[in-house]
Design a protein that fits this description.
1516 residues, mainly alpha, six-stranded mixed sheet, 54 helices, 57% helix, 5% strand, elongated
């Protein structure tokens, strides 16, 4: 590899090179100029021939690594942008070779951050903040601010170590992370913050100079001034000197910035020595506190200049002489002079200003002492006598507060003292290892300064007296700087150090801010700032410096350090907030290029830092915060609309993608509510050979409809293949985008490539949009020149679009004469938009004019709504209703009801319809090929033209007529029907000016119509085989009688509407009307046998017989309760079915707030009714009809809920309803009868027996049930083999149980005779026993065995279990439903579970997953695709195994038993209430209680009780 590399370098940059500089080999960049021979020679010996084709666009790894080795201090993309911009600006002077960066963590990051963080606030305002806010309050402020900067530093470290950050600090971090909009906005805020910081440092410098160093230098003298006058003089001095110092500093920066950088070390030394002096002074106070006396009158602090000694009088030569203080408060030097009342009533006290760290003063300074402006500083704990009546104190006597102080003010003033954390990242280009130095140095600097600040708060509060701390300008300590009084060895260390520190910080700000502005300007994201990107020849930002000095002058004019500090706090906090936001977004988005070397970050920390920044902004000053955010927002919007487009791979693009994905997923959750519906338009346009849009005016209409709101997709199709026509598609896409930009249509363009126009349009309709953001409206213009023979394909494509939009349930807008529509620049000063509201379309027709009138083109047009009334309609009432309707819709429109009276069908209508049907018939019967059809049609057309010339030689529409005949006749039968139907109503959804679209009058239409017929006539005369087509126009009335009346009515309606619309809307600017939809099938015929009625009604009829005849007769076996058994069954069944339709409909068949009814609903309702009738058997003869209705009323909901829960959540196989019908009904009935227990009936009842006639009637019921039971078991099984098996298994099971029942009945009877009770009930057990597995492959033998087992269990239950339940468990099962339905239901369920466990594909084949739908593979499983190839339409399942499905079956069985039993018990307690007319024991099983009975009704009773079978003789 070394030899190859050497050869490469020699060959490309060695002796053969012209300039002697190494170059990259052309195969690694581009070798389009080299011939194939040259290319092959270049690759000889390089082992890269395999990748020759890729080398033109993809460089070799060796070349890539070579470029990475010389990586500049710019992030990916920045260098390319800057190079491009430099090229645009012209060649720049060559730069000197840049030395390798050598700065380490200490010199490059730590110390610069220390220098920038420590500043004027520490020296001038820190002690005052502690005195006003207290140690606790100040500590909280310091902790909050330091925590904010620490969290910001963590986020900044993560960003700074994710690649190389160039000089520019936070601006580059944010702009490259959040995009140009946020970057520009925050960059300007950072620039303004840095500029105002310069103003703050200059004001601090002037304050130190004029107050503590040379007060005599003040231009505006303050001696003798009080209150506002003194304050104004101080501010004016600050303004004058500040402006001078600003000009001097700007001049220094302009001519010698390199000297400023060299003095940075001196400024840093001043800061460090000043801080060390403070700590030394604190230590000294513990050993030897300094003497700084403070004079207190009462509890008020006195100005130093107000006294010479702290006493009212002094002893001088044994005389008491008034002091200077006396002369200040009294009107003369005499001891009996009149003095200030407060002075007279209070003593003068001298206290120590710095009592020392061990003095315990910390407790007194622990809490805050906030003051109003002009309030005297008072010492806590000293007693004083207030002078309520005396004059107000003056400022030349006492130390007074200069501003009103509060907690949030302190936060705003203090926060600038923790800024400057970006100093290290600004110097990243000079660092030896920036990714290591920036995190360590910045965090270490913040930790150091935070410790200093927090310790200073505690030490100041522990060393200095409170009144001294609150003395902002040291007026009570002889004008000394308060923190200087604490310093050791001299206060001048602090004064001089802080002076040079503020000067240096001001110079640094004036140096850094212009360069930041220059960086923003050179990025070009803010156009009006580009002028500030230029400077001197050496690159110094001259213009930016001038602007910076001008903005800084604004802060100087404010003149108050306390007022300027919150302003720059806002800008810095906003900058830090977006640094945290950038880190949080990058972390949460998990972009692939987010790989910081600094690992100790987390999105939650960044989010907390961002929250703290935002909170501090509003804590400092809510109005400043709003102004700062307003400035940032304005800059953001300006960049968004006017700024240069930059692609820096920022996080906002990433969050936009994530937000879009989230929004699309939310849209997928369900269809939009009606209130949120708006037209999402897919505009279908066509392009010419040059890929330009043929009908650009359709996009003007789109803009007028949408006004930039909602989704708009403009789609077109390029005919060809993707490989060959991709370039054409790109040109078409660019053409669409340009036109959309011109017409100001906000949306997306989409171009598809397909083999023909029809398929391409279909693809656009199907796949346009994404997820839930899909089009719901298609906008396509009426086909141009549709009558021309060459346009027949376009016409066919249009028809297909109409059909596809109808199938997809999309709205279709068809503007006709689109070229005549107004452009976006036109204005209608008057006119109407007419809406012909013929049929209700959901409100679309009303919405369109409302949307159009929002646009300036249509704004002055008025809206008219026409509706059509028939003969039997009340026109006046219709108009009133429509006005009311429009009022509720908040639409202002004129209303007119057009009456269309019934009239005779004109001859023209008959002719038009006849031509349409005959063309259809001809093409249908001829079955010609396409070419043959064209020849046939052409011959018809030629003859047609000749006929016109003969019959109507003066017609000017002859060419168009012939063209129409050709174009229409060429279409297939179904397309002809649709198009003629639509063309009869001559506009689409939209029509401009004349909705007839060329249909000027009925006369013209007659010419068009009979000419085609004439053509057919003449052609028919030439063909001897069709004599009926050769009749004259006026001899066709007999043929009219055979016309399709449906087609005739449609044609008649279309022509009448056409006439009315032409008459009423002739002068309208726009006409909107409904188009009739296309037929649901292409032949416009319905197949009646496809209706579900014909598939399910036979089963429904069978179940009806079972419910009303089978159950009714079966329950009439009591000799005196025949009426009750049959009639109450009739009553209960009718009520139960109706109630079940409602309840089941709510749970299973409710859609869009409506219950959809069908035969399937009735079948399900009858299943629910069957459950009620089975439960009825348990209480037969012991309940009133009202109790039975209440029982049905309560049982149906319990059944419906159980059914819904089991089928929805457990998803079991139960085709015949074994679990949900038989088991449920059995245990529900047993629960009811358990509560309705009648002890007196345990020993039998005189009327409980049967008679000969009642047993015959009951046996008839058994026969009905037996015969129709296969229908009951198979109706809900899967159509086909499963249903076939269900019928077979049911019949076999019933047959087995019948034979077994006869055998067992005879065997168990001592006399060997048959018992009718056994025949009536036990013979049906086989139908229940096979129910759960009826559609499974259990084999005929299995069905037979189940029938025998069910019969045996039922027989034995009747004989032994029923008496046991009555005697032991208080369950009087009157008809033995537990035997016929409970026991056999359990057997059937067990058999079904076993059948599921043994089911396999070897037995069932692929159809196993139709029978067991929930065991089918899940969506996305490859096996599902294989199965769907064998069984088209197979739906994905849940992927359950046989064992899992069996477990769900067991769960369903157990839950059904529990729910039904509980429901039955509750129902029993309800029925036991005394309001439902329960019959007494002696009148049970007696019709006489509820019916009018015959007179010989009791005759059978006289035969004695021997008629009743004994328990030994019968199982009943």
């Amino acid at each position: 590899m070394l030899n190859n590399l050497t050869d490469c370098e020699e060959g490309e940059g060695g002796p053969n090179s012209q300039d002697g500089n190494p170059k990259e080999s052309s195969p690694f960049i581009n070798s389009s100029m080299a011939s194939d021979m040259e290319k092959s020679q270049q690759y000889d010996g390089k082992n890269m021939a395999l990748f020759e084709d890729e080398m033109d666009t993809s460089p070799m790894v060796a070349s890539l690594l070579s470029s990475l080795a010389n990586y500049s201090n710019l992030p990916t993309g920045s260098k390319e942008h800057e190079e491009a911009e430099n090229n645009e600006e012209g060649p720049r002077p060559s730069k000197k070779p840049i030395k390798a960066p050598q700065l380490g963590t200490l010199m490059g990051v730590y110390l610069p951050c220390i220098q920038n963080i420590f500043g004027v606030i520490l020296f001038l305002r820190m002690t005052w903040m502690v005195g006003i806010g207290g140690v606790l309050g100040s500590f909280i402020i310091v902790f909050m601010c330091c925590s904010t900067t620490m969290l910001t530093a963590i986020s900044m470290s993560a960003i700074a170590t994710n690649g190389v950050v160039p000089a520019g600090g936070s601006y580059y971090m944010i702009s490259r992370s959040l995009g140009p909009e946020f970057g520009g906005a925050v960059g300007i805020c950072f620039y303004l913050g840095t500029t105002f910081a310069g103003a703050m440092y200059i004001l601090g410098c002037i304050e130190i100079l004029l107050i503590y160093i040379v007060p005599q230098a003040a231009i505006f003298k303050m001696e003798g001034l009080e209150g506002p006058e003194a304050e104004a003089a101080l501010l004016n001095n600050m303004r004058v000197y500040g402006s001078l110092v600003l000009g001097l500093m700007a001049l220094v920066v302009f001519v010698g910035v390199k000297y400023v950088n060299k003095l940075a070390l001196l400024f840093l030394a001043c800061v460090i020595f000043s801080i060390l002096a403070v700590y030394a002074g604190v230590i000294k106070t513990a050993i030897d506190p300094p003497v700084f006396p403070v004079c207190i009158l009462g509890n008020r602090t006195l100005l130093t200049k107000a006294y010479d000694v702290c006493a009212k009088t002094v002893e001088l030569d044994n005389d008491t002489v008034p002091s200077q203080l006396w002369r200040t408060f009294c009107d003369s030097d005499a001891l009996n002079a009149t003095c200030d009342e407060y002075f007279s009533n209070n003593n003068v006290t001298e206290i120590q200003g710095i009592p020392g760290v061990t003095s315990g003063i910390l407790a007194e300074n622990l809490f805050g002492y906030y003051l109003e402006k002009g309030v005297i500083l008072e010492k806590r704990g000293l007693a004083s006598v207030a002078d309520e009546e005396g004059p107000s104190p003056t400022s030349n006597r006492y130390v007074m507060s200069d501003i009103t102080s509060f907690f949030t003010l302190l936060v705003g003033i203090y926060f600038p003292s923790v800024t400057g954390i970006m100093a290290g990242s600004n110097r990243s280009g000079d660092l030896r290892d920036a990714q290591k130095s920036i995190p360590i140095g910045t965090i270490a600097a913040i930790s150091t300064t935070s410790i200093v600040y927090m310790s200073s708060v505690i030490l100041f509060g522990a060393c200095i007296e409170g009144v001294v701390l609150r003395d902002k300008f040291g007026e009570g300590v002889n004008g000394n700087l308060v923190i200087g009084t604490l310093a050791w060895p001299s206060p001048w260390v602090i004064v001089i150090g802080s002076f040079f520190s503020t000067c240096g910080a001001g110079l640094q700000s004036l140096t850094g801010a212009p360069r930041l502005l220059q960086a923003i300007s050179r990025d070009g994201i803010i156009p009006f700032l580009r002028v500030f990107g230029h400077g001197k020849a050496n690159g110094e930002p001259t213009w930016a410096l001038l602007l910076t000095a001008g903005i800084c002058e604004i802060g100087i004019i404010i003149a108050s350090l306390d007022a300027v500090a919150p302003i720059l706090s806002m800008f810095f906090l906003m900058c830090y907030m977006f640094v945290n936001l950038a880190c949080a977004l990058q972390t949460l988005l998990r972009t692939p290029n987010w790989r910081p070397r600094f690992k100790f970050y987390h999105w939650a920390l960044s989010f907390l830092g961002m929250t703290l920044c935002l909170s501090l902004m509003f804590i400092c000053s809510w109005h400043y915060a709003i102004i700062a955010m307003g400035i940032a927002t304005c800059i953001y919007k300006y960049i968004e609309f006017c700024g240069a487009e930059k692609e820096w791979g920022d996080g906002i693009r990433g969050i936009s993608l994530s937000a879009a994905r989230f929004a699309l997923m939310r849209l997928e959750e369900g269809p939009p509510h009606t209130k949120n519906w708006r037209p999402q338009i897919l505009v279908l346009v066509s392009v010419d050979a040059e890929q330009n849009v043929e009908q650009p005016r359709i996009l003007s209409l789109t803009n007028q409809l949408k006004a930039g709101k909602g989704l708009t997709i403009v789609g077109t199709n390029v005919v060809g293949t993707f490989l060959n026509n991709y370039a054409d598609a790109q040109r078409a896409d660019q053409s669409l985008r340009r036109l959309m930009e011109t017409e100001r249509v906000k949306g997306f363009s989409q171009v598809v490539i397909s083999s023909n126009l029809r398929d391409g349009t279909s693809h656009l309709v199907q796949v346009g949009g994404l997820g839930g953001l899909k089009h719901n409206t298609i906008l396509v213009s009426w086909p141009q020149n549709w009558k021309h023979p060459d346009s027949h394909l376009r016409l066919k494509d249009f028809v297909e679009v109409v059909r596809e939009t109808t199938i997809a349930s999309l709205a279709l807008l068809v503007p006709k004469n689109i070229a005549s529509y107004p452009s976006n620049g036109e204005r209608f000063t008057e006119g109407h938009i007419d809406v012909w509201w013929i049929v209700h379309d959901g409100g679309m027709l009303m919405l369109l004019p409302f949307l159009l009138r929002q646009h300036k083109v249509w704004r002055k047009c008025k809206m008219r709504i026409f509706t059509v009334a028939q003969m039997d309609d009340n026109s006046i009432q219709m108009k009133k209703d429509l006005i009311t309707f429009l009022y509720h819709l908040r639409i202002d429109a004129a209303v007119e009801v057009v009456e269309m009276h019934d009239s005779d069908v004109s001859a023209y209508t008959y002719e038009k319809t006849l031509v349409m049907e005959q063309r259809t018939l001809i093409l249908k019967q001829m079955h010609l090929t396409k070419n043959e059809k064209e020849r046939e049609i052409q011959s018809i057309t030629d003859v047609s033209r000749g006929s016109i010339r003969r019959k109507n030689p003066t017609s000017l529409r002859v060419p168009q007529i012939g063209e129409e005949g050709a174009s229409v006749a060429e279409r297939p039968e179904e397309e002809i029907h649709l198009t003629l139907t639509k063309n009869s109503a001559p506009t689409g959804h939209m029509s401009h000016n004349t909705p007839g679209g060329g249909t000027a009058s009925p006369d013209c239409e007659v010419q068009r119509t009979w000419t085609d017929k004439g053509g057919a006539k003449d052609q028919s005369q030439a063909s001897a085989g069709k004599p009926e087509a050769g009749k004259d126009l006026f001899n066709m009335k007999p043929e009219w009688e055979h016309l399709n009346q449906f087609n005739l009515r449609r044609m008649h309606t279309a022509l009448r509407l056409n006439e009315v619309i032409l008459k009423k809307s002739k002068e309208a600017k726009l006409v909107l009307l409904n188009m009739p939809g296309p037929p649901k099938n292409r032949s416009n015929e319905t197949v009646a046998m496809d209706n579900a009625l014909y598939k399910d009604y036979p089963f429904f009829a069978d179940i009806q017989v079972m419910i009303f005849i089978g159950f009714g007769c079966l329950l009439a076996f009591f000799r005196q309760y025949g009426f009750g058994g049959m009639v109450f069954n009739f009553l209960t069944a009718t009520f139960a079915i109706q109630w079940a339709i409602l309840v089941q409909g709510y749970f299973q068949f409710s859609h869009d707030g409506k219950i959809h009814l069908g035969v399937t609903n009735l079948i399900n309702a009858e299943f629910a009714c069957a459950a009620v009738l089975i439960s009825f058997g348990a209480v037969l003869g012991k309940t009133s009809p009202l109790q039975l209705l209440v029982m049905a009323l309560l049982e149906i909901p319990v059944y419906a809920v159980t059914e819904w829960a089991v089928l929805t959540y457990l998803k079991i196989n139960d085709a015949a309803g074994c679990i949900l019908i038989h088991v449920f009904a059995c245990y529900f009935g047993l629960g009811v009868t358990f509560v309705l227990y009648r002890p007196r009936l345990n020993e039998g009842h005189a009327k409980e027996g049967s008679s000969y006639q009642s047993d015959i009637l009951s046996a008839m019921g058994t026969l009905f049930l037996w015969v129709f039971w296969p229908s009951f078991n198979s109706v809900l099984a899967l159509k086909g083999d499963d249903q076939h098996r269900a019928v077979l298994h049911t019949f076999i099971g019933l047959s087995a149980s019948t034979l077994t029942a006869f055998a067992l009945s005879s065997m168990l009877n001592r006399t060997g005779k048959l018992t009718m009770a056994d025949i009536q009930n036990v013979t049906l057990a086989g139908g229940v026993a096979v129910g759960a597995s009826v559609d499974m492959m259990i084999s005929p033998a299995g069905a037979y065995a189940l029938g025998m087992m069910g019969c045996a269990a039922c027989m034995l239950g009747y004989r032994y279990l029923t008496p046991f339940l009555a005697r032991r468990l208080r369950i009087q099962d009157q008809c033995g439903i537990h035997n016929l339905h409970g026991l056999t239901g359990l057997i059937s369920s067990t058999a079904g579970i076993c059948a599921i466990l043994v089911a396999s594909e070897e037995v069932y084949g692929p159809s196993m997953y139709e029978t067991f739908a929930h065991m089918a593979p899940v969506e996305g499983d490859p096996k599902l695709l294989e199965l769907q190839e064998q069984i088209p339409g197979l739906q994905p399942g849940l992927g359950r195994t046989g064992l899992e499905q069996a477990i769900y079956q067991v769960a369903a069985l157990l839950s059904t038993i529990v729910v039904s039993a509980i429901g039955g018990v509750i129902t029993g307690f309800v029925l036991k209430l005394p309001y439902f007319g329960s019959p007494p024991d002696e009148l049970c099983f007696d019709d006489d209680l509820f019916f009018e009975v015959p007179h010989n009704y009791e005759a059978p009773i006289t035969f004695s009780n021997k008629c009743r079978p004994t328990t030994e003789d019968s199982a009943a």
